[in-house]
Design goal:
single chain; 464 residues; 14 helices; 22 strands
């Protein structure tokens, strides 16, 4: 009988976990992945990134047609109706295809799917259902779940979290979103586009905490133009549900008189927390930090030899692509190779319309580190954005004043999520603003705005 059942056991089949399992198997390690959901892919694929993008895209097309935007381009449709059931059906179909694709990849790469939730019984042994499994290396990739708001009960009918907000059976007349971060703005945008009145309540003075200051201001201005109402600097003190409606009590974050807001639905989107409950980490000799995260070293090793951790359960941004990169890196480290993730260059994207994206330092953070130069270029000066009737937004490039090395890039435009890849790759290779400025960009494309913003760092853009 073999000493170990597996060389590598990955706990969790989200973007970090399934990628780690596939990469480990590709490297010749006998690999299993424990997952208790009925489908693979974790939160991101089942109830997060993927289904929300399906609704964002569909609602965007509906809004273009219903608002008359297409008619202005000569595309006349007559009356436009919303078929919410069909919109939900295409979302579910997209998820089904992708989760099935991961199952196929597991079979192709000979990764064994242990169906059930895993809990440690010792540092190298876990219990999955009625099966006990021993592995030489165990990777914790259990992701995160919605952070609850104290005193507010999520019933997934009137008061919903991000999962429930994907499943609303009808368009609410009034949706109140608690939290002005990425998830709240994306899902709020979906329901605003299909006819809901949307009010975003944010505790801080501005939306999108952690993003560049210029981006936060411009984004709020654009969302207001789209009809989303904002109550910033405001805290929620209670939510009462009666007769299928909600009454939200709010007051100024710095203190003051309370007021109430009536709504058909309330979306609680104040953040996410690591999933470590139920793992029985104590049996493995592991503890969590004050934020509930598992601390790891440079190679994603924990304090216990043979146990590794990646993704949302470790410090850093809770982003699927960060988890994926860590999944590849940890598998390579286990196999004796060198797996590295540059955590200074993890791009962030908000998939609203326009999209919002950034990588590296904000202008505020860069200034704290030293003297900088900043170049901005408005999308109104970009020929492709102009012909597409997408004048909103800008590209901003932040460089070190002495070396010209690019420290951060921030973009608001329809294709920002795709465009940020160029900036990330350039920064990975240590590009200066001059390097980007002297790189030929195809015309006419939105990406020319990156070139122009880089030229603006030295005060020499052409088209403004």
């Amino acid at each position: 009988m073999a000493e170990y059942d597996f060389d590598v056991l990955v706990i969790g089949a989200g973007p970090g976990g399934y990628v780690a399992a596939i990469r480990a198997a590709q490297l010749g390690l006998k690999t299993a992945c424990a997952e208790g959901r009925e489908t693979l892919g974790g939160t991101c694929l089942n109830v997060g990134c993927i289904p929300s993008k399906a609704l964002l895209h569909a609602s965007e097309l509906y809004n273009e047609a219903a608002s008359g935007a297409l008619a202005k381009l000569g595309v006349k449709l007559g009356s436009v109706e919303l078929d919410l059931d069909a919109m939900h059906a295409q979302r579910k179909e997209a998820v089904k295809g992708l989760t099935g694709g991961i199952e196929y990849l597991f079979k192709k790469n000979k990764v064994e799917w242990l169906k059930g939730y895993a809990a440690f019984t010792s540092k190298d042994t876990v219990q999955v259902g009625d099966r006990t499994v021993r592995a030489k290396n165990i990777v914790i990739a259990t992701g995160s779940s919605v952070t609850p708001l104290p005193g507010v009960t999520v019933d997934q009918q009137v008061v919903v979290d991000s999962t429930g907000a994907l499943e609303l059976a009808k368009v609410p007349e009034h949706l109140v979103v608690i939290g002005g971060g990425v998830i709240g703005l994306e899902l709020g945008s979906v329901w605003r586009r299909v006819g809901a009145k949307v009010t975003v309540v944010e505790y801080l003075d501005q939306i999108l905490p952690g993003f560049d200051g210029d981006v936060r201001k411009e984004a709020q201005k654009l969302f207001k133009k789209q009809g989303i109402e904002f109550k910033t600097g405001t805290k929620v003190t209670g939510v009462a549900v009666n007769g299928g409606k909600a009454t939200i009590t709010v007051e100024p974050a710095k203190g003051g008189a309370a007021e109430t807001i009536e709504a058909d639905n309330v979306l609680v989107a104040i953040g996410r927390r690591p999933n470590t409950d139920g793992l029985n980490l104590e049996a493995a000799g592991l503890t969590v930090n004050a934020r509930g995260q598992i601390e790891v070293g440079h190679e994603f090793e924990t304090a216990v030899d043979g146990i590794w951790a990646i993704g949302d359960v470790v410090p850093g941004p809770m982003l699927a692509h960060k988890a994926e990169d860590e999944g590849i890196a940890v598998a390579e480290n286990i196999a004796g190779l060198t797996g590295i993730v540059n955590h200074d260059l993890i791009p962030s994207v908000v998939y609203t319309m326009p999209e919002i994206a950034g990588v590296g330092l904000t202008e505020e953070a860069a200034k704290e580190k030293g003297e900088i130069k900043v170049g901005k270029f408005p999308m109104a000066g970009n020929s492709r954005a102009k012909t597409n009737h997408e004048p909103d937004g800008f590209v901003k490039v932040i460089s070190d004043a002495k070396t010209d090395r690019v420290l951060g890039v921030w973009i608001i435009t329809s294709l920002a999520g795709t465009m940020i890849a160029q900036a990330t790759q350039a920064m990975e290779f240590g590009a200066t603003s001059e390097d980007i400025a002297y790189t030929c960009h195809a015309h006419p494309t939105h990406s020319e705005a990156i070139k122009e913003a880089a030229m603006a760092v030295t005060g020499k853009p052409i088209h403004i």
